């Protein structure tokens, strides 16, 4: 019965909203989930089994929202993948097939690095101070990506055609591998992949779109793999809170993805870079002093 | 032309071979606990009954990727016209 008070419902609501937003904003959800409990004096630790089980629910909710938001795109992409397998070639004019395989190529390194390193890195860097320092580094990374970006060519093609033409196979692999940075609390998955997209010559909007499409299978698969944890004894006492948090995360993720897809039509990563650097610096000073 | 074709076949052969090896490795990870894994496998740990299911999934996915590569490389040749 003591377990029931590990995460309260108000905490679950706050953590759910925070996860939903920070998973998609390029500001590191993992970093925020390490820093915020420490800032608010909550007795929640990132490596506790019950908290990991709790996070499964919010990650699953975020992945489902992303899947729903890009549902039509996914249907087209899956048809494209099937078409290319049947034809045994990825035709240059088959945008959906090329985009689908770019996503597969990007998912492979992220998946492998995530599957093999996730647990070790999480344990190694699970300190709020380190997370705050890495949040600063995330800000530098985002700013660097904007600084070093290649100018995206202006065309009248639709979004996916532009991404499929601009992104190389090696680029997709690199962007996918960069996502593994998010295994370190403080670094953002979407930030790393958006930054990678910018370096490959995508516009902010296309980089965000590619990052969200790339994130969906990874977040979803990671959550599904750990679902037994939530349904098993490790989820005892947090399942109700996890459900509430998942609902909050779903709402927040939907608002976040809608906002970001419009925001990146005309804006850059720079405000997020400034936020990460300033928040990381402030938290580092606070935790050290 | 001929060396290029030979290289292509070599690549396809290698991809299939590596794919098969990786699928076998995946099955070993799923079937055997950490203590029974060969010593050179990542995750081998004496006395541990833990199954490294995730390592198996990773090996399986890379194996599938190798097969997909071979599948496309052995597909019908396109008639490419250089611009």
Overall shape of chain B: elongated
Secondary-structure content class of chain A: mainly alpha
Structural class of chain B: mainly alpha
Number of strands of chain B: 0
Q: Biggest sheet of chain A, in brief?
A: none
Poorly predicted sequence stretches spanning 5 or more consecutive residues of chain B: 79-83
Topology (elements, then pairings):
The complex is a heterodimer of chains A (289) and B (83).
Chain A: H1 9-24, H2 29-39, H3 49-69, H4 71-87, H5 95-124, H6 128-148, H7 159-166, H8 169-178, H9 189-199, H10 204-231, H11 239-266, H12 270-288
Chain B: H1 2-31, H2 53-73
Helix pairs in contact in B: 1-2
What features would you describe in this structure?
The complex is a heterodimer of chains A (289) and B (83). By secondary structure, chain A is mainly alpha-helical. Chain A has one domain. In chain A, 76% of the residues lie in helices and 0% in strands. Chain A contains twelve helices and no strands. Chain A has helices at 9-24, 29-39, 49-69, 71-87, 95-124, 128-148, 159-166, 169-178, 189-199, 204-231, 239-266, 270-288. In chain A, helix 1 packs parallel to helix 11, helix 5 (95-124) crosses helix 10 (204-231) and helix 10 (204-231) packs antiparallel against helix 11. Chain B is mostly helical. Chain B has one domain. Helices cover 61% and strands 0% of the residues of chain B. Chain B is built from two helices and no strands. The chains are: A mainly alpha (289), B mainly alpha (83). At the A-B interface, helix 4 and helix 5 of A face helix 2 of B.
Short account of what is shown:
The complex is a heterodimer of chains A (289) and B (83). Chain A is mainly α and 289 residues long. Chain A has helices at 9-24, 29-39, 49-69, 71-87, 95-124, 128-148, 159-166, 169-178, 189-199, 204-231, 239-266, 270-288.
